[in-house]
Amino acid sequence: MNCDEAELELSALYDGEVVSTGVAQHVAGCDRCRQMLAEYSRMGAEMRLAAAVEPAELPPIRLEPRAHSLAFLRKRIGVPRFALATLIAAAILAPIGVSLLRAQSLPLWFQFAFS
């Protein structure tokens, strides 16, 4: 067993879960893995300390005001607005024009006949 394989189960070992004997033996003899377990312990202590701090002592969180839901269209499109409007109009009018042309080129379903 090497450190990379044991590292996958170190957090489980820190949490008190059952790990394989190979991982336990490796951690017992590996300074790097024991240091990583100690780092998990320090992180846990820091998180418990952060949770114990009163909210009034924490600095206020400043959030940016929420932008309009379609504001991203104005920011990310590098096309002039008239070109975008032309593209949208073409996308709407093209199928209409094609259907009118096809309707004119099809023969009538009935024929005029004078007898």
Evaluate the radius of gyration: 35 Å
Strand percentage lies at under 5%
Helix and strand succession? HHHHH
In round numbers, the mean pLDDT is: 80
Please indicate the count of domains.
Answer: 2
Blueprint (SSEs and pairs):
Blueprint: H1 3-14, H2 21-29, H3 31-52, H4 71-76, H5 81-105
Helix pairs in contact: 1-2, 1-3, 2-3
Would you give an account of this structure?
With 115 residues, this protein is an all-alpha fold. The protein has two domains: 3-57, no CATH class; 71-105. It is built from five helices and no strands. The mean pLDDT is 80.
Q: What keyword list fits this structure?
A:
mainly alpha, 2 domains
Short description:
This protein is mainly α and 115 residues long. It has helices at residues 3-14, 21-29, 31-52, 71-76, 81-105. The chain is 64% helix and 0% strand.
